[in-house]
Specification:
Function: Part of the ABC transporter FtsEX involved in cellular division. Important for assembly or stability of the septal ring.
Order of helices and strands: EEEHEEHEHHHEHEHEE
Helix content: 25-40%
Organism: Patiriisocius marinus
Radius of gyration: 17 Å
Family: Belongs to the ABC transporter superfamily.
Structural class: alpha/beta
Number of strands: 10
Strand content: 25-35%
Number of domains: 1
Distance between the termini: 26 Å
CATH superfamily: P-loop containing nucleotide triphosphate hydrolases
Number of helices: 7
Keywords: ATP-binding, Nucleotide-binding, Transport
InterPro entries: AAA+_ATPase, ABC_transporter-like_ATP-bd, ABC_transporter-like_CS, ABC_transpr_LolD-like, MacB-like_ATP-bd, P-loop_NTPase
Length: about 230
C-alpha cells in the first residue's frame, strides 16, 4: 500500500440520507490510469465528489494523497484540492478571461506570488496539452476540445498527485474525445496518476486500462473483455 495515492476500505457514501455506494474497498497506485464506469445514477459522480471533499465520508476509511477523508474538515479542503487536479465535463473556464488569465487566477488562488514563476508554469502546462499558441484567446473563441485541453492544463498547475477526470469527454464528439484521451494518456505516461469517470465504452476499448465499475451500490474491478 506504500505507493497508493487513493485507498478506501469499507467506505459508505451517502448523498444526504440516500445510500449511494456501500462497503467500497478500492486502491489506486501511483502512476496508474484507472477508469470508473457505470450507468448514469450509479454513483460515479458521488464517488468523485467524496474524493475531492464535496461529500463527506460518513462511514469507513479513506485516504487520498495523504488526507484522511473520514476526518476531513472544511478548512482542509483547499489544501486537499491543491494536491488533486480535477477535470470536469463542462470545462468550468471563466469566459471573461483569456486562457492565460484563467490559469493565472488558479495559481494566485493557490498561493503563488512570483510573477515570473507563474508565467513559466503556465507556459509549461499549456505546452503539455498543445495549447501554448492559444494562450491569449478567450474560452468562447475555442472549440470544445481546446477548452477541455485548457481545463486539463489547469488541473496540472500544482503538480497534482492524482488527477480526477469526471466525464472529461462527455460533451465532445468522438474524434475530439480521442484527441483529449491522447492528451490524458501522454500525461499519464509522464507519471501522473489519473482516475477517469466515463460512460464512453469506445474509448475504453481503444485504450484498455484498469477499470472499476459502479453497479448496485458497489464498486468492483472488471476484467477488460467483460466490459
Amino acid at each position: 500500500m506504500s505507493n497508493a495515492v487513493l485507498h478506501l476500505t469499507n467506505a459508505t457514501i451517502f448523498q444526504k440520507e440516500n445510500l449511494i455506494l456501500d462497503d467500497v474497498t478500492v486502491s489506486i497506485e501511483k502512476g496508474e490510469f484507472v477508469y470508473l464506469i457505470g450507468k448514469t445514477g450509479a454513483g460515479k459522480s458521488s464517488f468523485m465528489k467524496t474524493l475531492y471533499g464535496d461529500l463527506p465520508l460518513q462511514k469507513g476509511e479513506g485516504n487520498i494523497v495523504g488526507f484522511d477523508l473520514a476526518k476531513l474538515k472544511e478548512k482542509d479542503i483547499p489544501f486537499l484540492r491543491r494536491k488533486l487536479g480535477v477535470v470536469f465535463q463542462d470545462f468550468k473556464l471563466l469566459n471573461d478571461r483569456t486562457v492565460q488569465d484563467n490559469l493565472r487566477f488558479v495559481l494566485k488562488a493557490t498561493g503563488w506570488k512570483d510573477k515570473k514563476e507563474m508565467e513559466l508554469k503556465i507556459d509549461e502546462v499549456l505546452q503539455k496539452v498543445g495549447m501554448k499558441t492559444k494562450s491569449f484567446k478567450y474560452p468562447y473563441q475555442l472549440s470544445g476540445g481546446e477548452q477541455q485541453r485548457v481545463a486539463i492544463a489547469r488541473a496540472l498547475l500544482n503538480d497534482p498527485e492524482l488527477i480526477l477526470a469526471d466525464e472529461p469527454t462527455g460533451n465532445l464528439d468522438p474524434q475530439t474525445s480521442v484527441e483529449v484521451m491522447q492528451v490524458l494518456k501522454e500525461i499519464n505516461a509522464n507519471g501522473n496518476t489519473i482516475l477517469m469517470a466515463t460512460h464512453d465504452y469506445a474509448l475504453i476499448l481503444k485504450y484498455p486500462s484498469k477499470t472499476l465499475k459502479c453497479d448496485e451500490n458497489q464498486i468492483f474491478e472488471v476484467v477488460q473483455k467483460t466490459v
